[in-house]
Design goal:
The complex is a heterodimer. Chain A is built from four helices and no strands. In chain A, 30% of the residues are buried. Helices cover 58% and strands 0% of the residues of chain A. The two termini of chain A are 19 Å apart. Chain A has a single domain, classed as ACP-like (Non-ribosomal Peptide Synthetase Peptidyl Carrier Protein, Chain A), CATH 1.10.1200. Chain A is mainly alpha-helical. Chain B is of the alpha+beta class. Chain B has three domains: 215 residues, 4-Layer Sandwich (Glutamine Phosphoribosylpyrophosphate, subunit 1, domain 1), CATH 3.60.20; 206 residues, Rossmann fold (3-Layer(aba) Sandwich); 77 residues, no CATH class. In chain B, helix 10 packs across helix 19. Chain B starts with a strand and ends with a helix. The chains are: A mainly alpha, B alpha+beta. The interface between A and B is medium-sized, with 25 and 32 residues.
Chain lengths: 88, 645
């Protein structure tokens, strides 16, 4: 499950922010901000992708680097959110 | 204002070459042309007649015929200098400022430049000493480029004149491209053209048999932050500022033709227009650009100011397709790739002035650099403020206040704001601290560089080179002054005064004059305590105070509105110009070899689908398109593709 999420998010990031460039190593823990992959507009594009793709709503309070600044963090965040949806 | 070209060395059929060089920059001086050749030197000149209409022809020689000058620009204090020279027994044959330089040089050699208050570049052939003296004004208003072919040395106001020299071919300098995609401009003396160089602002160059030497005759300097400031009384400082600015404007109204004024609706051009309005015999004409898009348009403020001053006001609309329509021509004049479209509306504006049959306009450029008007100065202050308490959930919200026009920031949390702006308290020892987020954000555009270009540039760091150019005293300056220096010493001449300034105005034979860049005012402003310039988060505080009686309150209190124009959205959508697709297509991108064709195709598609792209994507789009246009304009690459489209 988490691998599927990670792969989907990674594919989106490579396509949308790296424009298909796979020469830039993208490890699970790499910070999107520190590596210059995402700017302030990019964060909102990322949020829109998560909401559209996983049917969840990302509250303003959730839009923080702790949730969204690397593949690993996003994967954890989406897993948690989708699990709570299922539980509800 | 004019353009010139010339050479030092033995050149076969020098006169024909000079004609070719001058013809290439005829737009700079549509009124007349002149040529001078000596045994091992030549000068060609295209003249825009502004001072000494009937007797200011160039190249101009002195009475002995041994000194000959080709001069671009204006010496605004030429009246005072001429009187001083007359008092010493000098005889003048013309009423021009050009002759004043000849006499001054004759009296004191090249050090005479330190007496000149003006915007100038000149080449002076000293037949006595058989040497060519090149000089450029302090702030870099007027351009001067040079190159060599073997033992021969060539120079000109624009690179396109140098491309007339046999053997000089246009080739893009990859390091310059890296600098543009990091710093927005090449670091002088480097230019976008390999082996073509720029004489740096405030520099003198002596070219003679067997040697070329360059030295600086003036430098922008700030006080040591540990030394008590000279100006402690704000009221007195404001009075001195007003007197200097008034005089700087007064001498910039000197011309034998009418002088108009740009009016953006912001503080700076409103001030220069207000001062000029009281000095313009017959009334002042003002000129503005308007935009369709509300986020860029300032026409309400322009009209309010024009009404308040009673000027004869004209404006030119910059609509959805206008930027794309003129952009190829704009790049032919900037002679370098650019990351913003902002020069394009200024190209249209100078065209409007030309249609109005004026040749000279004042502008408000320079005030943001010398009185700390740009947002980046406030941003650096807020970053330091946040850094004093990392993790604060309140302090980073100030960033949103700084950039209300950036939609991407509106919904961001304090944590993200702090992360985007590097406001965690680190990097305080970095000499480029103030500009680091901008540099990093801009450098992200290099993602689109091709593998070959990346390999060529491997190990090169443009920001590191910039840091290495800083003077030793830099570390002792106040952080605000450090940030001001970076703007005034690099971006001002490298982008604002060139790509947006001289090159856009001269494309239509218009001379821009910059009261805020009078060196007396620049030196005065540099010596002011930082808090008189940036008071809290209010920019240009002392300038507002010194000029508040000149402006309607709504304009005098108006926060800085950065001059911006639509970027990638100018080139996409149903009305997109054919050349855009051709220039960004795989064939043209692949032929250019500088960018990754697949990545560029995805960027083009993304910007077409999503017009409100972020900074990185917009800058990359404009940067790549302008690079492709540069290649087409100067190397011929991609022209067949563009025509086929």
């Amino acid at each position: 499950m988490t691998d599927t999420i990670r792969d989907a998010v990674k594919a989106f990031v490579i396509e949308n922010f790296l424009f298909g460039d796979t020469t830039q190593a993208l490890d699970d823990v790499d910070s999107f901000i520190e590596t210059g992959i995402i700017d302030s507009t990019g964060v909102l594009e990322l949020v829109a992708f998560i909401e559209d793709h996983y049917g969840i709503t990302v509250a303003d309070a959730d839009i923080v680097p702790a949730n969204l600044d690397s593949l690993a963090r996003i994967t954890d965040f989406i897993s948690l959110k989708t699990a709570s949806l299922v539980a509800a | 204002m004019c353009g010139f070209g010339g050479y030092f060395g033995t050149v076969r059929d020098g006169r024909a070459l000079l004609k070719g060089m001058t013809a290439a920059i005829a737009h700079r001086g549509p009124d007349e042309q002149g040529f001078f050749t000596a045994e091992a030197a030549g000068l060609g000149h295209a003249r825009l007649s502004i001072v000494g209409l009937s007797d200011g022809q160039q190249p101009m020689s002195d009475a002995t015929g041994e000194l000959t000058i080709a001069f671009n620009g204006e010496i605004f204090n030429y009246v005072e200098l001429r009187e001083e020279l007359r008092a010493k027994g000098r005889h003048f044959r013309t009423g021009s400022d050009t002759e004043v330089i000849l006499h001054l040089y004759d009296a004191m050699g090249e050090d005479c430049v330190s007496l000149l208050n003006g915007d100038f570049a000149f080449a002076l052939w000293d037949g006595r000493r058989r040497r060519m003296v090149l000089a450029r004004d302090r702030m870099g208003v007027r351009p001067l480029f040079y190159t060599r072919q073997g033992e021969r040395f060539y120079f000109a106001s624009e690179v396109k004149a140098l491309l007339q020299v046999p053997g000089v071919a246009a080739e893009l300098d990859p390091v310059a491209l890296d600098q543009i995609f990091t710093l927005w401009a090449p670091i002088a003396p480097r230019t976008a053209f390999r082996d073509v160089w720029e004489l740096e602002p405030a520099s003198l160059m002596i070219v003679q048999e067997g040697s070329v030497s360059t030295r600086s005759y003036w430098s922008l300097d700030y006080p040591d932050r540990e030394v008590p400031p000279r100006h402690r009384d704000e009221r007195e400082a404001a009075e001195e500022l007003r007197a200097l600015l008034t005089d700087a404007t007064r001498i910039r109204m000197r011309a034998d033709v009418p002088v108009g004024s740009y009016l953006s609706g912001g503080l700076d051009s409103s001030i220069t227009s207000a001062l000029a309005a009281g000095m313009a015999p017959g009334g002042l004409r003002t000129f503005s650009v308007t935009f369709d898009s509300a986020e860029h348009d300032e026409s309400a403020f322009q009209l309010e100011m024009a009404r308040a001053l009673g000027t004869q006001h004209s404006s030119v609309a910059c609509g959805a397709g206008d930027i794309a329509a003129v952009f190829p021509e704009v790049i032919r004049f900037t002679e370098r790739p650019i990351l913003r479209t902002a020069p394009a509306p200024l190209y249209k504006l100078s065209g409007l002035v030309r249609e109005a049959r004026l040749k000279v306009v004042l502008t408000g450029e320079g005030a943001d650099e010398i009185f700390a008007g740009y947002d980046i100065f406030k941003e650096a202050r807020v970053r330091r403020f946040c850094g004093r308490q990392p993790g604060s959930r309140i302090r980073p919200h100030l960033f949103r206040k700084l950039y209300p026009y950036l939609p991407g920031l509106r919904q961001q949390s304090a944590e993200y704001l702090a992360s985007f702006f590097g406001a965690d308290g680190s990097g305080l020892e970095d000499p480029l601290f103030s500009h680091r987020p901008r540099l990093d954000g801009t450098a992200a555009t290099k993602l689109f560089f091709s593998g070959d270009l990346r390999a060529t540039l491997s190990g090169y760091d443009a920001a590191e080179e910039l840091a290495a150019r800083l003077p030793a005293a830099f570390a002792r300056w106040h952080p605000l002054h450090q940030a001001q220096y970076l703007e005034a010493r690099f971006l001002l001449p490298g982008y604002i005064l060139s790509s947006q300034g001289d090159r856009m105005a001269m494309a239509h034979g218009i001379e821009g004059r910059f009261p805020f860049l009078d060196h007396r005012l620049v030196e005065f402003a540099a010596g002011l305590p930082p808090q008189m310039k940036l008071k809290g988060l209010v920019e240009k505080h002392i300038l507002r105070d010194a000029t508040k009686d000149l402006l309607p309150p709504a304009i005098g209190r108006r926060p800085k509105q950065p001059y911006r124009a639509p970027d990638s959205q100018s080139f996409v959508g149903p009305g997109a110009r054919d050349y855009v697709g051709a220039m960004l297509g795989s064939a043209a991108i692949g032929a250019g070899g500088l960018f990754n064709p697949k990545a560029v195709a995805k960027l083009h598609e993304k910007c077409s689908r999503q017009p409100a792209s972020g900074f990185r994507d917009n800058a990359a789009f404009v940067g790549i398109l302008s690079t492709q246009l540069w290649l087409a304009a100067f190397t011929g690459a991609g022209q067949a593709t563009a025509k086929a489209a």
